[in-house]
């Protein structure tokens, strides 16, 4: 008894240390990137113009400017914000719970910090010894260098992730959802009975995000007087907003997922393309890489939150999931309808 308690005690102390280590390694690249920017700024401070070129066009010519102090403020806000996102991903996403997920997460953090940090430091170098930032030039080969630096940084992050995973004895794959029954659960229906199931699900913050994206696209178009690039942001925002509150239907036609207020776009899986359905608990980030309409190797889905989901295995072997309440009833009815359709052939 005493040995068991001692083991639990050690495990309880190791977990916080492991969590702190994950956070530190995830935040470190952004701190280093900002430190690098500060060092370059300190070295070149007396050689920089009062107006620094901060944005460059495809031809390398400057087309955006900020003051010297503002350049540091923007840089600090960028890296602090990205560091906060990294902390959220480590603590809440589920990627930090298994070996490959942790390695990929830290590789992404280190790559992002390097890819952004290099151009910001290189932009300062491009402004040195100039009377005004308008004369600055940023050659495109600097972006190629940034990609190379990011690739090296990603390797460093992945190695650190694997080392931490070994130290924390993490498994190679995520724990996954609830175990599936050997026999898919079915809903009792008589031969002459018909049934349908409809449920609306959603996420208020996801709808707000979609509206914000679309609004930002409109604002950018208004400020720049050009719609081409902004249309992508507007379209993406509208798509996110459309699926922020989907309607999930199970009936004789199969499974249908569509926006609550619109008939399109919709996703329909007919009964003859469904092998079975289950109710599972999923993690939006770990299992599907985020929220909205997600596509991952071997699986796709409409994911508005983590938690209960209807997971359908297609006859092709691929999975489709939609997060919705009362998914057990939906899965049981869908299995019954699939079995009935198979018997009718």
UniProtKB/TrEMBL annotation:
Ranges for domain DUF1648: 37-71
Record keywords, A-Z: Membrane, Transmembrane, Transmembrane helix
Pfam family, one: DUF1648
Transmembrane segments: 20-44, 70-91, 103-121, 141-165, 204-223, 229-248
Source superkingdom: Bacteria
Name listed for the protein in its UniProt record: DUF1648 domain-containing protein
Organism in which the protein naturally occurs: Streptomyces kanamyceticus
């Amino acid at each position: 008894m005493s040995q068991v308690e001692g083991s639990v005690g050690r495990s309880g102390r190791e977990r916080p240390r492991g969590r702190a280590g994950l956070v530190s390694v995830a935040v470190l690249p952004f701190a280093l990137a900002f430190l690098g920017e500060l060092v370059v700024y300190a070295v070149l401070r007396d050689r920089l113009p009062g107006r620094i070129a901060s944005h460059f066009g495809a031809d390398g010519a400057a087309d955006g400017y900020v003051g010297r102090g503002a350049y540091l403020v923007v840089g600090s806000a960028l890296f602090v914000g990205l560091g906060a996102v990294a902390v959220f991903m480590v603590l809440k996403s589920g990627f930090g719970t298994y070996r490959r997920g942790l390695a990929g997460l830290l590789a992404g953090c280190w790559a992002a910090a390097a890819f952004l940090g290099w151009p910001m430091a290189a932009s300062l170098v491009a402004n040195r010894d100039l009377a005004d930032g308008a004369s600055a030039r940023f050659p495109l080969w600097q972006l190629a260098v940034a990609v190379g630096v990011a690739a090296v940084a990603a390797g460093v992050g992945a190695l650190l992730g694997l080392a931490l995973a070994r130290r924390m004895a993490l498994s190679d794959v995520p724990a996954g959802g609830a175990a599936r029954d050997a026999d898919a659960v079915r809903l009792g229906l008589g031969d002459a009975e018909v049934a349908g199931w409809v449920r609306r699900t959603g996420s208020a913050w996801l709808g707000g995000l979609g509206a914000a994206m679309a609004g930002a696209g409109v604002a950018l178009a208004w400020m720049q007087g050009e719609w081409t690039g902004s249309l992508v942001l507007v379209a993406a925002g509208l798509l996110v907003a459309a699926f922020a509150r989907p309607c999930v239907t199970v009936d004789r036609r199969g499974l249908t997922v569509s926006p609550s207020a619109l008939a399109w776009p919709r996703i329909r899986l007919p009964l003859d393309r469904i092998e079975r359905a289950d109710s599972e608990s999923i993690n939006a980030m770990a299992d599907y890489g985020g929220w909205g309409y997600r596509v991952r190797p071997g699986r796709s889905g409409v994911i508005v939150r983590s938690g209960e989901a209807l997971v359908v295995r297609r006859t092709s072997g691929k999975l489709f999931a939609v997060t919705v309440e009362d998914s057990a009833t939906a899965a049981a009815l869908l299995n019954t309808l699939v079995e009935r359709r198979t018997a009718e052939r």
